[in-house]
């Protein structure tokens, strides 16, 4: 059943409620009153003719209707830029070395806000472009501040003739086709043992699979990861095509951030783009 035209601002609020677990916390995070958020949800429910949430203990979870809506805006903060998908952004940035792991051979760049805003989503997303004229294709990681950071491996850095600490020129654009995520071994084995889950996995979209893998691999502890693999199979077996209650941008959950730079003071880049902007102003120029 096709969805009607839904208010984008209300959909942002829905995503916040889902990821924070309550309307009150979502209202605080967004900076609006609970009554205003509640009114937005009532408007969405009237459009759909069905409730979006149900209580599960102290949290709110999606109904079937809510799950359909969530499949549309799970990365809502970036989808308003979908019409600019063919845009190319050009900017300069400093190649930063991460504080951890020590003596890492790779470097990274935090994208300016206006560059990330031109991408189709705020979660992991694949881009194609050049670094000092050297072509590359890579998956950007969310920085938890509605922007992204790019990992630059040693091979690309050397091919581009750049050294750690150099300012480089990058041009990036969304990839014509999203890159299929590598299936982790533990998830592959679990899916092999769950035919119904495997069937749903194979029928969903590449972007949905990107988020499933990101959710599982972002677990900090082995026990958490094992539980997520098991939960993923249960959800997929029940027909859920997208991972529930996962914030791919890290903005609402505070789950992701750019690496801290080795040449920054404590906390220098732990906050992502804001700190990077303070210490390393970035000049940008975008063209369609």
Automatic annotation (TrEMBL):
<keyword id="KW-0804">Transcription</keyword>
<dbReference type="InterPro" id="IPR037079">
    <property type="entry name" value="AF2212/PG0164-like_sf"/>
</dbReference>
<dbReference type="Pfam" id="PF08922">
    <property type="entry name" value="DUF1905"/>
</dbReference>
<keyword id="KW-0805">Transcription regulation</keyword>
<dbReference type="InterPro" id="IPR000847">
    <property type="entry name" value="LysR_HTH_N"/>
</dbReference>
<feature type="region of interest" description="Disordered">
    <location>
        <begin position="256"/>
        <end position="288"/>
    </location>
</feature>
<feature type="domain" description="HTH lysR-type">
    <location>
        <begin position="6"/>
        <end position="63"/>
    </location>
</feature>
<dbReference type="InterPro" id="IPR036388">
    <property type="entry name" value="WH-like_DNA-bd_sf"/>
</dbReference>
<dbReference type="Pfam" id="PF13376">
    <property type="entry name" value="OmdA"/>
</dbReference>
<comment type="similarity">
    <text>Belongs to the LysR transcriptional regulatory family.</text>
</comment>
<dbReference type="InterPro" id="IPR050176">
    <property type="entry name" value="LTTR"/>
</dbReference>
<dbReference type="GO" id="GO:0003677">
    <property type="term" value="F:DNA binding"/>
</dbReference>
<dbReference type="GO" id="GO:0003700">
    <property type="term" value="F:DNA-binding transcription factor activity"/>
</dbReference>
<dbReference type="Pfam" id="PF00126">
    <property type="entry name" value="HTH_1"/>
</dbReference>
<dbReference type="InterPro" id="IPR036390">
    <property type="entry name" value="WH_DNA-bd_sf"/>
</dbReference>
<keyword id="KW-0238">DNA-binding</keyword>
<protein>
    <submittedName>
        <fullName>Regulatory helix-turn-helix LysR family protein</fullName>
    </submittedName>
</protein>
<dbReference type="InterPro" id="IPR015018">
    <property type="entry name" value="DUF1905"/>
</dbReference>
């Amino acid at each position: 059943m096709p969805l009607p035209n839904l208010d984008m601002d209300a959909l942002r609020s829905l995503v916040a409620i889902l990821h924070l677990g309550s309307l009150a916390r979502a209202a605080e995070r967004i900076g609006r009153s609970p009554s205003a958020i509640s009114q937005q949800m009532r408007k969405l429910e009237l459009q759909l003719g069905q409730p979006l949430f149900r209580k599960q203990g102290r949290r709110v979870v999606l109904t079937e209707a809510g799950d359909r809506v969530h499949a549309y805006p799970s990365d809502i903060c970036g989808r308003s830029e979908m019409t600019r998908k063919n845009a190319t952004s050009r900017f300069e940035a400093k190649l930063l070395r991460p504080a951890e792991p020590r003596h890492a051979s790779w470097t990274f760049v935090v994208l300016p806000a206006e560059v990330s805003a031109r991408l189709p989503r705020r979660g992991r997303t694949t881009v194609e472009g050049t670094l000092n004229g050297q072509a590359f294709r890579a998956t950007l990681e969310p920085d938890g501040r509605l922007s992204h950071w790019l990992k630059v491996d040693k091979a690309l850095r050397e091919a581009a003739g750049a050294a750690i600490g150099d300012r480089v020129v990058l041009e990036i654009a969304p990839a014509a086709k999203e890159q299929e995520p590598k299936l982790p071994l533990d998830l592959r084995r679990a899916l092999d043992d769950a035919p119904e889950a495997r069937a749903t996995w194979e029928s969903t979209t590449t972007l949905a699979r990107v988020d499933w893998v990101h959710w599982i691999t972002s677990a900090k502890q082995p026990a958490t990861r094992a539980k997520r693999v098991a939960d993923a199979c249960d959800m997929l077996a029940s027909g859920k095509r997208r991972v529930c209650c996962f914030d791919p941008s890290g903005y609402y959950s505070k789950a992701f951030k750019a690496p801290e730079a080795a040449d920054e003071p404590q906390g220098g880049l732990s906050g992502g783009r804001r700190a990077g902007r303070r210490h390393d102003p970035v000049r940008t120029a975008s063209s369609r």
